[in-house]
Amino acid sequence: MTRPLPRITRTTTVARTRIFRVEEVDLTFPNGVQCTFERLRRPPRGAVMIVAVTEHQQVLMIREYAMGFERYELTLPKGAIDEGESPLEAAQRELQEECGMGARELIPLCRLSLAPSYMDHFMHVVIARDLYPASRQGDEPEPLALETHSLKDIEEIIEEADIHEGRVIAALYRTQSWLARHSQG
Amino acid sequence: MTRPLPRITRTTTVARTRIFRVEEVDLTFPNGVQCTFERLRRPPRGAVMIVAVTEHQQVLMIREYAMGFERYELTLPKGAIDEGESPLEAAQRELQEECGMGARELIPLCRLSLAPSYMDHFMHVVIARDLYPASRQGDEPEPLALETHSLKDIEEIIEEADIHEGRVIAALYRTQSWLARHSQG
């Protein structure tokens, strides 16, 4: 698109903690309107989320403590990309740390963002197939409970386990769609 | 589940800006491991996202400037719930402000979260049907470009418009699934 972008006239870091950095940004929109927005800056290398699918079209999920909601939640394995790692290398490592499995096939599926209007965070979603047992010690405070669920009825998984994380739901549906389009192979 | 939760031993606000508040939380996990996590606290009332569907199964989408990525993005109408508003009232208002349409039918579909491991943000997703022209002045810095897309091929919308927001993708798929289950009505 050739639509002109708002002009950024000032960017200032207004808060910084161990893991968060907040910026204040002054903007002038193409119509002349001036605004000040805040945005949260992401960690330098982004993150990965892994949809590991067994030969029986089951997906590996974990129950992990969610600090935001103070409860255990069913989710997909994921984690930050370490320095020097590619997204696929990070996916292989996280899968081994969180699920005790390695994958002979890793397929980059898509990237998912959080809240583009005030965050620049993104996560690489990677499909993992041809799995084999392979565990590696991670930095989890406790062992994660591993579960497998059928990818055939995503609505059922979501409703039974009360899954509400947008990225997890998006990754499950997009994987289902990808597998449907690539199952003739 | 009867699984014991980690014990929170201290919660301190470590940063506060106009729209963000960061907390530091000390935890003791059931196995005795102690951790300090950070989390971002949400605005008090949460937000709404509206999937407005026409009688021809087209969904209303807008192109809006995304401060996180410094570009215009195709997204669903959404916004914060105002004081004293219910989620459905906020959905009706945002739809009129951002799309110039009202809805005679509003159906609460689900709630979506961002990153449960370090945020407690959630958004109510509302399906809007039986639409009629009705516009209201909002607080947008510029008029939003309105587009309609067929709900039949979500993968096509996502790929053509490079949609990456997890919540938008999740809301489109869950709406498609809801409509498929309720189309006999």
UniProtKB/TrEMBL annotation, chains A, B:
This protein's cofactor list reads: Mg(2+)
GO MF assignments = ADP-sugar diphosphatase activity
- Domain Nudix hydrolase, by residue range, is 43-174
What are the protein's UniProt keywords?
Hydrolase
Q: Which residues form the signal peptide?
A: none
Which GO terms of the cellular component aspect does the record hold? cytosol
User: GO terms for biological process?
Assistant: nucleoside phosphate metabolic process; ribose phosphate metabolic process
Specify the superkingdom: Bacteria
Q: What is this protein called?
A: NTP pyrophosphohydrolases including oxidative
